[in-house]
């Protein structure tokens, strides 16, 4: 088999010969799934970012962990082949690609696991690492009336993909990220070992794989904590003219006890103008409501800030009880008087709100545009400086066309660049320092996401360069920050990113993937022969 692999890499025969090679490799590996040649048109050569196109040798659709183990061991028998696990392809900078290597399509394993269990008296669900969170949600709610405690805003992501990063959203301030809401994993390591791990069983692999960027193993199963699912959500948006007032209320809400705050707290930045996509009209949740700019103070700047909130309740709750609870919570906030929008939606509808925006974007031809996104964790101590320099200067839109702020907007101009800036605070509480996730030092930090939809052409490289300048500025000014979904190119940058965790990270790599076979697209370690 090893000789066959070497021949394929160096052979330049016709495509018919490649088809024979695929058959040979398939038989040699004894796969239960399927294998096909990688090419520039394959899903394995692309991702959501649309910034890179990297051709793999093969795309493999495994039937389960055993197939993945065989592929990893086969790669280990060569001096150069690497293996990348691809979830739903939502990475931005080629993190799930393998140049001339194997790309494993984890979606083919999505139905392998789905079992309800009780662990220490609490409900959990065993799900496949290749399952989409939106499918986990639908099945858990419809079958058991239960739901995972922590989500991402966008749910068309795989379980293994988000757990390999962190998995954050507006409820992370209460339950922590998704990496803090699993009790057990099944992982295929870089040695090809299929290993079950937890806090008490193989804990170094368990915590290493959580937030480990795929460097130590491929997550094939996860045991996820569940809780009773609410029936309904009161969805609320309140607008702020000043950043300081916006952050004060955000930090207050995420610091309160469970019954003294909302169930979901996020925020975003939008344009102070009448642009239908990126300005005032895009804030209103109820189409019958209009944004009245007359409420804004005369001193307001070019951008406004919005807190997005959610209050969970059950169908059996009296409407007056819900109204009273929401009024009590909203009454303590310092938003601009009169600039509040709210509506009641089902719990499922609220969690799938980004899916509707995706469908709208696909219908309008925008979804497949490049996405030069940038995600950061910025400490509370530096967020005001970040606002003054990045939001209001470095990222200042060149006209309203370069901004987008809402995931529920249904108005899309085909010729627009779209940009959403999310900005919301979370606390260190609920984040386990034993995982591989790199965090700022501050107790409270902000998740900042600059989410652009840019038409193909020169504007793409311009936004990529702008992202780099933002990161360089953060480093130069000594901000307490970390990239989320990091994509550094140099090892020194990775060492700075992990800080005092780098030694631990490097040791874990040597232990679980000593030949650096896994996740080459992250560009952290180089493939070795020993």
TrEMBL record:
GO-annotated molecular function: cytokinin dehydrogenase activity; FAD binding
Organism in which the protein naturally occurs: Gossypium anomalum
Family the entry assigns: Belongs to the oxygen-dependent FAD-linked oxidoreductase family.
Name the record gives this protein: cytokinin dehydrogenase
Reaction equations catalysed: N(6)-dimethylallyladenine + A + H2O = 3-methyl-2-butenal + adenine + AH2
Residue ranges constituting the FAD-binding PCMH-type domain according to the UniProt record: 52-229
Example GO BP: cytokinin metabolic process
Record keywords: FAD, Flavoprotein, Oxidoreductase
Claim: Flavoprotein is one of the keywords in the record: yes
Cofactor(s), by name: FAD
UniProt-listed Enzyme Commission number(s): 1.5.99.12
């Amino acid at each position: 088999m090893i000789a066959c692999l070497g021949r394929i890499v160096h052979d330049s025969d016709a495509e018919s010969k490649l088809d024979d090679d695929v058959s040979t490799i398939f038989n040699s590996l004894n796969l239960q799934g399927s294998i096909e040649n990688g090419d520039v048109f394959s899903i394995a050569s692309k991702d959501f970012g649309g910034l890179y196109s990297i051709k793999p040798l093969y795309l493999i659709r495994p039937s389960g962990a055993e197939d993945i183990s065989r592929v990893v061991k086969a790669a280990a028998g060569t001096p150069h082949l690497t293996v990348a696990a691809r979830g739903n392809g939502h990475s931005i900078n080629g993190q799930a690609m393998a140049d001339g290597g194997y790309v494993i399509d984890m979606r083919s394993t999505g139905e392998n696991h789905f079992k309800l269990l009780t662990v220490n008296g609490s409900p959990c669900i065993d799900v496949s690492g290749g399952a989409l969170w939106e499918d986990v949600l639908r099945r858990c709610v419809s079958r058991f009336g239960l739901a995972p405690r922590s989500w991402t805003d966008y749910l068309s992501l795989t379980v293994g993909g988000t757990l390999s990063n962190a998995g954050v959203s507006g409820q992370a301030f209460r339950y922590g990220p998704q990496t803090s809401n699993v009790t057990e994993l099944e992982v295929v390591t870089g040695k090809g070992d299929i290993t079950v791990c937890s806090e008490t069983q193989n804990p170094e692999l368990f915590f290493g794989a959580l937030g480990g960027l795929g460097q130590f193993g491929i997550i094939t199963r996860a045991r996820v904590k569940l809780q009773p699912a609410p029936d309904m959500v009161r969805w609320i948006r309140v607008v702020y003219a000043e950043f300081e007032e916006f952050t004060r209320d955000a930090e207050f809400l995420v610091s309160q006890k469970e019954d003294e705050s909302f169930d979901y707290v996020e925020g975003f930045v939008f344009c102070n103008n009448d642009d239908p996509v990126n300005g005032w009209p895009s804030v209103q949740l109820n189409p019958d409501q209009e944004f009245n700019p007359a409420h804004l103070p005369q001193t307001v700047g070019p951008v406004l800030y919005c807190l997005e909130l959610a209050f969970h309740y059950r169908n059996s709750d009296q409407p007056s009880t819900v109204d009273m609870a929401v009024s009590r919570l909203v009454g303590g906030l310092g938003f601009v008087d009169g600039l509040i929008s709210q509506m009641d939606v089902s719990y499922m509808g609220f969690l799938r709100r980004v899916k509707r925006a995706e469908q709208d974007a696909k219908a309008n031809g925008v979804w497949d545009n490049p996405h030069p996104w940038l995600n950061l964790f910025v400490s509370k101590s530096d967020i005001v400086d970040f606002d003054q320099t990045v939001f209001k200067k470095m990222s200042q839109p060149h006209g309203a066309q370069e901004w987008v702020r809402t995931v529920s907007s249904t108005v899309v101009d085909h010729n627009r660049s779209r940009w959403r800036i999310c900005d919301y605070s979370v606390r260190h509480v609920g984040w386990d320092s034993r995982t591989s996730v790199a965090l700022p030092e501050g107790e409270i930090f902000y998740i900042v996401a600059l989410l652009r939809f840019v038409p193909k052409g020169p504007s793409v490289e311009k936004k990529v360069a702008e992202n780099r300048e933002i990161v360089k500025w953060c480093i130069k000014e000594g901000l307490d920050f970390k990239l989320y979904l990091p994509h550094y190119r140099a090892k020194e940058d990775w060492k700075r990113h992990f800080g005092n965790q780098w030694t631990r990270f490097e040791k874990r790599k040597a232990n679980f993937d000593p030949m650096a076979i896994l996740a080459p697209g992250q560009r952290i370690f180089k493939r070795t022969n020993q």
